[in-house]
Amino acid sequence: MLLERARRRRATAPADPPDTKGLALKDAPGLRGMDHPNTFRDAFKSLGFDPDEQAALMGAHTFGKITAIGCSGQFKGIQKGPFCNKEEQLDPPIAPSQLVGNGCTPKLGKIGKCWKVGKCSKKQERKGKCSKKGERTLNPAFFYKNKRAVRPVSDHFGGGAFWDRTPTTFDNDYFKLFHQEDFEAKNNCCGSFGYVRQYKGCMGKGAMVDRKGKKIGGPCDHSWCRKDGGHKEVMMSTKAWAEPDHQFINRASAWGPTRKLIRLPGDWALLGDNETRKAVLDFAKDQDLFFTKFKQAFGKVLDRGHSLALCSAKSPSTMAPKTMPPAAPATTPAPPPSSDPSVPEAVKVLTKKVDGLESKADAWTYYAEGCGASPYLASMKGSFDQCATYCLSLPACFGFQQNNQNCYLDDDADQKISGRVTTPTSKEVALAASWHCAIKRQA
Question: How far apart (Å, rounded) are the C-alpha atoms in residues 313 and 153?
Fold first, then answer.
């Protein structure tokens, strides 16, 4: 009986992959669609954004992070996969003085940029942390500490990922990292090619091959490789890495402060269209041009808002078409830069004046209490309206809580915001409370 069941399971063909055409960036960014860049361009175009504006808005990824479990799609384990083991080829490269064997000593809570040379074990090979047992490995080292153990030197990449080498700074490094890449690099797998859950895709373990099964060398021969899951497709860096201030990372001493870099389908799609690819090249060369285009594009985002009338149980075919108010002129003067260095650069460069704009009654629902839970999507110091501006710039941000200029932005995974708040109130009453919360009404 058991043998017969096993035969039936082997004989059952996997289900066809879901049709991703038209799914990218409708109500939320698509985690599938790596092979269909046109769906992203079509979606941005339908919303009134030209190719430069699309690239600029995607470039906002330059500030921020993906946590292992705090984002839609569950990115737990995303860091697993091949990484170049040659110090001089990493980006940035590793100097001999950064090796633990040469005296580099990780310190708790401090940026050390220490690395450790080792050998791949059978267990590490099985888990996809290295390609082959016995091969030389090169991993970031840090001071490990949690409630159960303390290890002065632990070496592995932290869970989650960043988009560029300066994740705490709003700059053009996002574009510099992949402006010379070929869109077809999406066919380079981080491991073998086969069935990933219910469809064929790139795995993170095994010898690196292309999507036709041909060997393509190792991680030092490429800058990016592809990993597929049942509900997400990503490009992972094989050489580039970042270790920011440890306070920027939730539980850095337990999960690891150094991360690999990532590109989601919407990021990589910029290389698949001639016009958005040109914008990537232009922004990589000229940071001021990126800032200018981002101001223009984000001004449109703030002006367009969202129609609550569309949030209903009606089928898409019966819903009224969206009507958008006209965009603000691109010449709207920008506010003066904030003197508080803890306010993210993404907030400082916005075109619109912050005060009063994002806190209109039709934009937010207020609560005289805290909401959200660690790990947060992002955190910052700033005024209430600055926090609101930053939340609006992050598509995944559902709302935020604030206390004494400390602001914590979060998504609503497992209803960790909507499930905690009770009675809404006015903005004045909410701000009078020690802890207060604001939720996007369009969320």
Answer: 54
Structure tokens at 48: 């009134």
For residue 203, give the nearest of 236, 221, 228 by alpha carbon.
228
Q: How far is CA 14 from CA 7, 65, 199, in A?
A: 14, 34, 7
Residue 103 above 90 pLDDT?
A: yes
Q: Which tokens go with 431? A: 């701000």
Report yes or no: 68 and 76 within 8 Å, Cβ to Cβ. Answer: yes
What fold does the segment set 37-76+160-241+260-276 form as a domain?
Peroxidase; domain 2 (1.10.420)
What is the total residue count of the chain? Answer: 443
Same fold, 37-76+160-241+260-276 and 353-443: no
> How far is Cα of residue 28 from the mean position of the Cα atoms in its chain?
13
Sheet strands side by side (includes 114-119): 114-119, 136-145, 150-155
Closest CA relative to residue 430, chosen from 396, 390, 388:
388
On the CB side of 414, CA atoms within 13 Å amount to: 10
Which has the minimum average pLDDT: 9-13, 42-46, 423-427? 9-13
What does the domain layout of the chain look like in residue ranges?
Answer: 37-76+160-241+260-276, 353-443
pLDDT digits (tens, 9 = 90+) for 234-275: 999 999 999 999 989 888 888 889 999 999 999 999 999 999
Q: Encoding tokens for residue 411?
A: 């998504």
Give the pLDDT confidence score for residue 286 in this predicted structure: 96
Strand ranges (DSSP E) for 82-163?
Answer: 114-119, 136-145, 150-155
Matching residue, tokens 């609560």: 367
Residue 253: which of 106, 105, 373, 406 has the closest Cα?
Answer: 106
- The CATH fold assigned to 353-443 is Hepatocyte Growth Factor (3.50.4)
Long-range contacts of residues 130-135, Cβ cutoff 8 Å, at least 24 apart = 130/82, 131/82, 131/206, 131/207, 131/208, 131/218, 131/219, 135/85
Q: Are strands 364-367 and 378-381 parallel, antiparallel or unpaired?
A: unpaired
Q: Please list the residues that pair with 136 across neighbouring strands.
A: 119
Contacts of 123 (CB under 8 A, 6+ apart): none
Residue 424, sorted as left (phi over 0), alpha (psi -120 to 50) or beta, turns out to be beta
Q: Determine the Cα–Cα distance for residues 211 and 110; give it in Å rounded to an integer.
A: 41
Q: Is the pTM value of this prediction over 0.85? A: no
The pLDDT value recorded for residue 148 is: 79
